[in-house]
Amino acid sequence: MEEYFRQIAARTGEGERVASAVVVSSRGSTPQDIGARMLFFRDGSTWGTVGGGCVEADVRAEAIRVLADGRPRALEIDLIDDIKGEGDVCGGTLEVLLESWSSAPLISP
Predict the structure, then answer these.
(1) Is the full-model pTM beyond 0.90?
(2) Per residue in 3-24, pLDDT tens?
(3) CA distance 78 to 18
(4) Separation CA 35–CA 33 (nearest Å)
């Protein structure tokens, strides 16, 4: 966990926005447990994992939006069947919270 915050501090200290993803709910068989974390950076690099494969592809797509607009999102990923033909057959569901981190000052109301 310490390295997670160290990565955020280093990148935001350089003026970069960082998108974080945290597994907040896990039902059934899933590739990661609640609390798994991943960071996404503007240069395309990442830190950590929320599940690999199709899970991370879906999360990455939302993280790109978070990096662009700074707005948080919740994403539910259904791994129950393989309707899309992408190999999503773990048998469970993950909910991932995505948030933005930056060194921009907070605006008071």
Answers:
(1) no
(2) 999 999 999 999 999 999 999 9
(3) 25
(4) 6
